[in-house]
Amino acid sequence: MTTQTWFITGANRGIGLEIARAALGSGHRVVATARRRQTVVDALGERDDVLALDLDVTDKPQIAAAVDAARERFDGIDVLVNNAGYGHLALFEETTDADVRAQFDTNVFGLMDVTRAVLPLMRAQRSGRVLNLSSVAGFTGFAMASLYCASKFAVEGFSLSLAEEVRQFGIHVTLVAPGFIRTDFLDPSSMKLGGTSIDDYAAFNDALRGAYLPMNHQQPGDPVRLAQALLQLAAGDAPPLRWSAGSDAVEMVDARLGALKAELDAARGLSASVDGDWVGAPAGQGGAQRSA
Ligand SMILES: NC(=O)c1ccc[n+]([C@@H]2O[C@H](COP(=O)([O-])OP(=O)(O)OC[C@H]3O[C@@H](n4cnc5c(N)ncnc54)[C@H](OP(=O)(O)O)[C@@H]3O)[C@@H](O)[C@H]2O)c1
Fold this sequence. Notes:
The protein has helices at 14-25, 37-44, 60-74, 97-125, 146-166, 202-212, 223-235, 247-266, 268-272, and strands spanning 5-8, 29-34, 50-54, 79-82, 88-89, 128-133, 171-178, 192-193, 242-245.
């Protein structure tokens, strides 16, 4: 097996830390980045195969500096893991514009900025893997997660499209879409809850918080096993575009696919009624002019 260089955001705890440990355990080098570099050193120790760096993904100069440092130390990046992220869990009307922008600054724009900085290296190498942490929340909606789901849906659209653009350079993009994984994700140290409260939503809010909050550190998915599976996927010649992590994720994706298919089938006639008379007409009679 060839030794690869992995560049991981949010590598100090949770899924990111377990991916770093798994990559090191397989003999790879890791650029382990975190908002506070010391937290990575505390978790992984000082070692030659780890470059621990300060990186807040919302800080563009830090992104540039981290990618430069990775190139200088390890001469390239083979696998980029865009893992840093958090959930703002609140009913939409109880969030603010600042909450929306902060959620997107980290989960979407930060991920895009890191990717933009790393891609030239991978293009020059004519190889690379980009693993973007999405979620089951990037495929289906949940009450109390409109901001988080919107951010992960954005990650999905971005990643599926980017995959089409960079495949020609030997760069593969994979969406990693976990269900509920046992990390600090639902802990007050990570998750953000709504600020304002609206009487009309009070009972609904209580019910939702009552469902989510007790799941903190009780989630079914194991981040260590997720990291091992990811390593296996990254080693394959044809990594999937989207991979669901955990049986709960598979179940929720199955349910959403079934519902989508049922809705599509129920309205096929109405959908087709929008087609112009030129659809199916021979070229020259309007058929060739049809565009999406
Ligand atoms: N756990 C789940 O159930 C689950 C399910 C689906 C998807 N995910 C996704 O998996 C990823 C990792 O989450 P996790 O479960 O490991 O949660 P976690 O234990 O809360 O870890 C989140 C990590 O992201 C980092 N982070 C947050 N904002 C950052 C920023 N602006 N710049 C750099 N790092 C930042 C945190 O750093 P600090 O320590 O500095 O806060 C921490 O290292 C996230 O993208 C999350 O959306 C998780």
